[in-house]
Every structure is written in C-alpha cells, then in structure tokens.
Design brief:
Number of strands: 21
Bound molecules: NADP nicotinamide-adenine-dinucleotide phosphate
Order of helices and strands: EHEEEHEEEEEHEHEHEHEEEEEEEEEH
Strand content: 25-35%
Distance between the termini: 19 Å
Low-confidence stretches: none
Structural class: alpha/beta
Length: 315
C-alpha cells in the first residue's frame, strides 16, 4: 500500500523551502518535489540586496542553498522530481509524479512562476542559440559581444546591469516610455556607460534563424511605426513571469492571468469553496508583490495552516 504522507510541498524556491523548514520543525517530515527549476528564481539571480538580515547582500543561489540545508536539518526530504498530474478531490490527495504516485494529507503548492517569452516564432527557434531568459546562466557566452535586453521592470534592469560584465554594449528595449522598475535599479541602468535605453520599441523578429545563431533584431518604434535593424549576438528576455499553475486548472480557482486565487492568504478554493488540505504560497499565487521575502512569509503561513489542519484532524 502507498504510504500516506502528512505534507508534500511542490517547489523548492523561497516559499517552498520556508514551508519545508516550518513543517519539518513541526515533525511532519515534508517531502519537497523540487520541480523543473530547482531553487526557483533566486537560484538564477545574482546579489539579493533586500532580504532582511544580509546587510551586504547575499548571492541568490547561496541563500537557497542555506534554506535547503536548514530544511534538511529538521528532516525535510528533497527530491529532484516533478508533477505530472494531481487529484485534489481525493482523500488522501493523489499526486502523479516523476517518482510515481504519492499520497498526502496536505499539499503545499509553491510552484512559483517561470520566465515569460515574447512568443515570436524566430525567438522560439533561437532559444539556446543566442536567445535566453537567464542572464546569470548564459551571460558568460557573450563576452566581448553586443547584446539586447527586453523589458522595463527590475528583472530587465538587473539582467542588463549583470550583462555589462561580459558584453561590450547592452541595448535595453522597452515597449513604453515609462518604466516599471524601481527608481534605484533604473538609475543604475541609466547611469551605466555601456547600457543604452531605447523606449517605445518592440521586437518584430529575431534575425539569424537560418544561421542558427542570433544575428540581430528587427525593431519597430511603436509611436512612429518606423522599423530598423539592430545588430546583436544575444537577446535576453526580462519581461516577467507566468505562474506555474496549469496542473490545477479545473480543480482550483485561478485568476485571469493564471495565478492561484487564495482566500485568507494561503487557502485555495474551487468554485469559491475551500479545497481541504491544499494551500498555496509564493509567486504562484502572488501577482502583486512577488518578492523573496513575501514568498518566504507566505510559505511560513501555508506551513502553519497545514500543521493546524492536520492537528484538527488528529494527525
Ligand atoms: P514586471 O515588473 O512585471 O515587469 C515586466 C516588464 O516586461 C514590464 O516593463 C512590461 O512592460 C514588460 N513586458 C511584459 N510583457 C512584454 C512583452 N510581451 N513584450 C515586451 N515587454 C513586455 O516583472 P519583473 O521585472 O520580472 O519583476 C517582477 C517582480 O520582481 C517585481 O515586483 C520586481 O520588483 C521584483 N524584482 C526585484 C528585483 C530586485 O529588487 N533586485 C529584481 C527582479 C525582480 P510594461 O511595463 O509595458 O507592462
């Protein structure tokens, strides 16, 4: 017979690992399925300057590694596995995963959000051949080259600034004149001698599909309609993220952008009714704040609610 676990956590970013630390300390022996992007977004970022307790900042991967060790110290098990499908209405909840069927009394969904793409056929054809959404992973390949970054938020600023370590010139392309980025990040990008900002500009096509490497971009000014070509060797997308919630569609209420809707912060619902034993935390349910610290905070809340749920049922 399949063992029934007390708690399974989907995702190993800031929210999932915080939930793991709390449920492990409560003796629930959580199983964490690390998912397709182990460590979540922090594991592919550089310095985190706004996580309280690190006055000089900390590297994202180091912060995640510390959280993993902390969770494991209290008895959490982390598995490099991912979900295929889920039966939330079953008691216990059934998960079909890359490590087989798993039964659990509570499920904490911390599956986060993944990078968004422009959706151009030429962009999709050149992913891994000069098109990337991860500056920290791929920046190294563009040493001494000219590249472009798309986006107007903090991610785009961070990517552009990071890429100046390798690229000789970074052109930052944004579709509007106003930026979403925080003042401090925008000012750093504006002040950098190797970053050029182009506003009101969109990418119509990535050039180089036949050559199987990025050769340039076909750009369009959205105000004037004028088009031109920018010769670059790499294109980085910093245009936000999509929630990883598609497995739950039809079993959980999602909002119009696909984020899990929660009530009282972490309780999930289906047709407005609470789904028993299923809690959501972190970026998969947060379209507003999306910070490491808010993800960690909601991971803690989900864990406390899971613990309470089990206690009330005598487990
Ligand atoms: P974001 O704030 O949602 O910004 C996404 C940007 O991409 C926006 O400027 C948006 O343009 C643009 N965009 C979206 N879809 C596009 C498309 N199809 N074509 C062209 N442009 C497109 O996302 P984010 O920058 O990833 O930041 C998310 C959250 O994480 C924010 O709360 C941010 O503060 C936080 N964050 C913080 C740091 C840090 O503090 N170091 C670093 C990274 C992220 P519009 O403005 O026109 O909508």
């Amino acid at each position: 017979m399949t063992e029934i676990r007390d708690t399974v956590i989907l995702g190993s970013g800031c929210a999932g690992l915080t939930a793991a630390i709390y449920t492990a300390r409560a003796g629930l022996k959580p199983l964490v399925l690390e998912g397709h992007e182990p460590g979540g977004q922090l594991s592919i970022t550089t310095t985190v300057e706004n996580f309280p307790g690190w006055p000089d900042g900390i590297q994202g991967p180091e912060l995640i590694e510390n959280m993993k060790k902390q969770a494991q110290r209290f008895g959490a098990t982390l598995e490099m596995a991912h979900l295929h499908s889920v039966e939330l209405g079953a008691h216990p909840i059934k998960l079909h995963s890359s490590m087989g069927e798993i039964h659990t009394r509570t499920l904490i969904v911390a599956s986060g959000a993944s990078a968004r793409w422009l959706g151009l056929p030429s962009e999709q054809a050149l992913i891994g051949h000069g098109v990337s959404s991860c500056a920290t992973c791929d920046g190294f390949f563009f040493r001494g080259k000219e590249i472009a970054v798309v986006g107007g938020g903090d991610s785009a600023m961070e990517e552009a600034l990071f890429l100046t370590r390798f690229a000789t010139k970074v052109t930052l392309l944004h579709r509007r004149a106003q930026f979403r980025a925080s003042k401090i990040m925008l000012e750093r990008a504006v002040a950098h001698p190797n970053i050029e900002l182009r506003t009101n500009t969109i990418v119509d096509e990535v050039l180089g599909v036949d050559e199987k490497e990025v050769k340039g971009l076909k750009l369009r000014d959205v105000k004037t309609g004028e088009t031109d070509t920018l010769a670059i060797s790499g294109l980085f997308l910093g245009i936000g993220h999509e929630p990883n919630a598609k497995f739950f569609a039809g079993q959980m209420d999602l909002d119009d952008e696909g984020y899990i809707k929660t009530t009282n912060n972490v309780f999930t619902t289906n047709h407005g009714e609470i789904v028993p034993g299923v809690f959501a935390c972190g970026d998969v349910q947060d379209r507003r704040y999306r910070q490491a610290i808010t993800a960690a905070g909601s991971g803690c809340m989900a864990a406390l609610e899971a613990e309470k749920y089990l206690e009330e049922r005598g487990h």
